[in-house]
Design the sequence.
């Protein structure tokens, strides 16, 4: 996706040279989110500073506390469309071996959970899939619908977007940050820079921001219950007892529907 969506996400012109991965943004009164790699106009304020929240491999970093308090971040994590599309996100992620929280983070940054988002480069929907990418994965126009119209369907959009992201993860094994960079700038750009995040301000900001949302959406590791051998032996006064061990619960299973027809 290019961050040049007229409605949801706006980006500055991509420049070569030393990249600054600052992210600016604001939220309209109607909840629409705008992001850019520069302050496009006075409404934009600094959202993520260059050098902050550097993505860690292989998993997400720790979410930045100050970032989490911003209105823009809160809007994207509390968007009303999250509950609507979360079952689809989980199903598509499971089919293609992806972490659903990562896919959710990509959607937050790509489209702000707006299924009707269309970029000025023609990227469509929740995961900002280009028509050429859709065709690459078998989406074909017919007498009733164009490729663009088909990709506007959230179910198909998620199917193609997750398939593409899964393929990028396999291409850049153990380098999740490169898979994200390739999703934004294209795999050829990453390969051209010898398996490094390209020095484009937009792409570097994109990788960092997705990493921050991934960190927020990912549940904290469960605390393991201590065994009797692990507990510290102490002497306590009579009629007082030690607290019992912590317990953890298992995640609920998710039903996975068949992949949608294209």
Sequence:
């Amino acid at each position: 996706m290019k961050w040049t969506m007229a409605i949801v996400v706006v980006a500055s012109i991509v420049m070569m040279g030393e990249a600054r991965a600052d992210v600016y943004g604001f939220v309209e009164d109607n909840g629409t989110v705008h992001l850019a790699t520069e302050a496009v106009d006075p409404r934009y304020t600094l959202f993520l500073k260059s050098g902050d929240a550097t993505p860690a491999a292989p998993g997400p970093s720790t979410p930045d506390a100050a970032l989490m308090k911003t209105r823009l971040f809160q809007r994207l994590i509390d968007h009303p469309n999250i509950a609507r599309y979360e079952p689809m996100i989980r199903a598509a992620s499971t089919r293609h071996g992806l972490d659903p929280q990562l896919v959710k983070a990509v959607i937050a940054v790509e489209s702000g959970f707006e299924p009707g988002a269309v970029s000025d480069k023609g990227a469509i929907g929740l995961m900002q899939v280009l028509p050429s990418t859709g065709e690459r994965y078998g989406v074909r126009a017919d007498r009733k619908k164009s490729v663009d119209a088909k990709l506007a369907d959230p179910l198909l959009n998620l199917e193609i977007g997750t398939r593409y992201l899964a393929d990028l993860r396999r291409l850049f094994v153990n380098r999740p940050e490169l898979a994200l960079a390739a999703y934004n700038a294209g795999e050829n750009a990453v390969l051209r820079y010898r398996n490094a995040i390209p020095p484009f301000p937009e792409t570097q900001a994109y990788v960092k921001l997705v990493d921050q949302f991934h960190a927020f959406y990912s549940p904290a590791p469960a605390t393991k219950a201590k065994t009797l051998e692990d507990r510290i032996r102490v002497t306590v006064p009579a009629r007082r007892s030690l607290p019992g061990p912590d317990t953890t619960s298992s995640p609920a299973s998710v039903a996975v529907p068949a992949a949608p027809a294209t």
Observations:
- The longest strand covers residues 23-27.
- Confidence is low (pLDDT under 50) at residues 1-19, 52-57, 223-259.
- The first helix runs from residue 65 to 68.
